[in-house]
Amino acid sequence: MRLPHLLALGLILTLAACAAPDDAPSSGEAGSDALTVTVSDFMIDPSDLEVTGTTVTIDVVNDGPTPHNLSVRDADGEIVMATADLSTGGTETITADLEPGEYTTFCSLAGHESLGMSGTLTVAAP
Questions:
Q1: Alpha-carbon distance 63 to 111, whole Å?
Q2: Total domains, the chain
Q3: Pairing label, strands 79-82, 71-73
Q4: Strands (E), 8-77
Q5: Is residue 5 situated within a structural domain?
Q6: How many CB atoms lie within 10 A of CB 5?
Q7: Nearest to residue 38, comparing CAs of 49, 30, 46?
Q8: Which of 7, 8, 82, 90 is 20 to 30 A from 99 via CA?
Q9: Range of the domain at 114
Q10: In a domain, 7, yes or no
Q11: Are 78 and 56 in contact (CB under 8 A)?
Q12: What is the β-pairing status of strands 118-124 and 71-73?
């Protein structure tokens, strides 16, 4: 009987068509849930984040086999929010009030940023 297989395939294709593209920026709005970021060897996903409003909350999950963290620095190079170093499967939620502008997200462990663990957080005025 092939009908159950065809129905399952149809459901998978329908769900895939409804999903956001992998390169779409993750965004939050005032009063919305936290942004979700996955760190792994050696990437931050999504790498581009956008939020409207000055309160920024990010749920971070380490999906890599080695420790990682998520740090956020401002244009002056000051770290304005950061997780602890997360082991495989580790999670942490960080929250900060940030001024509108562009920030750099990165893993602060030695060499990780230069290996591609960086991105951008854009905070827009409400």
A1: 18
A2: 1
A3: antiparallel
A4: 26-28, 35-40, 43-45, 48-52, 55-62, 71-73
A5: no
A6: 9
A7: 46
A8: 90
A9: 23-124
A10: no
A11: no
A12: unpaired
Tokens 């068509």, residue? Answer: 17
Q: Which two tokens stand for residue 107?
A: 């893993």
The residue whose two tokens read 């956001």 is 20
Q: Which two tokens stand for residue 9?
A: 């395939």
Q: What is the Cα–Cα distance from 40 to 34, expressed in whole angstroms?
A: 19
Pairing label, strands 55-62, 35-40: parallel
pLDDT given at position 17 = 38
Q: What is the CATH number of the domain that holds 76?
A: 2.60.40.420
Q: Give residue 97's identity as a one-letter amino acid code.
A: D
70-91 pLDDT tens trace: 999 999 999 999 999 999 999 9
H/E element, 103: strand 101-106
User: Does 82 reside within a domain?
Assistant: yes
| pTM score, whole prediction | 0.75
